[in-house]
């Protein structure tokens, strides 16, 4: 039933678009812009051009069947695909780690970090700077 309603509304929309005529626009004394099929009698209007549907193109010619590819080329393509999959896995792991770090930074105001070989508590300014840096890393790498 939903498909039938969707199909009929789509056909109705396409039909009205294909049969669209001239459209006129004008601004009344109150500054309201109007659009209509007929121009107003008492004031000037501007005729808007309506788009005409594009002509139907002939069916594309069928392409010849693909030639069997070179075994060396197939090996290169497999290697590239494998390398891309490895890089994507590393990127996902990085994003998970960075998001976990951001959650720690945002939810824990009293953090300690190892700086110059010694453990010390981060100041609020340092924590906010690390939050901003982590958010930038997420935006650039994890979207």
From TrEMBL:
Residues 35-83 are annotated as: Disordered. Residues 55-68 have a biased composition (Pro residues). Residues 1-20 form the signal peptide. Residues 35-49 have a biased composition (Polar residues). Keywords: Signal. InterPro entries: DUF4124 (IPR025392). It comes from the Bacteria. Residues 10-60 form the DUF4124 domain. This is DUF4124 domain-containing protein. It comes from Azotobacter beijerinckii. The lineage of its organism: Bacteria, Pseudomonadati, Pseudomonadota, Gammaproteobacteria, Pseudomonadales.
């Amino acid at each position: 039933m939903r498909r039938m309603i969707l199909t009929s509304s789509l056909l109705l929309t396409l039909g009205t678009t294909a049969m669209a005529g001239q459209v006129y626009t004008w601004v009344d004394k109150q500054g309201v812009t109007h659009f209509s099929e007929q121009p107003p009698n008492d004031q000037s209007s501007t005729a808007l051009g309506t788009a005409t549907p594009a002509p139907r193109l002939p069916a594309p010619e069928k392409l010849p069947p693909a030639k069997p590819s070179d075994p060396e080329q197939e090996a290169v393509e497999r290697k590239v695909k494998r390398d891309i999959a490895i890089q994507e896995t590393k990127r996902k792991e990085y994003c998970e780690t960075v998001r976990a770090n951001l959650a720690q930074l945002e939810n824990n105001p009293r953090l300690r970090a190892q700086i110059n070989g010694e453990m010390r508590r981060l100041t609020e300014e340092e924590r906010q700077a690390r939050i901003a840096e982590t958010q930038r890393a997420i935006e650039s790498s994890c979207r």
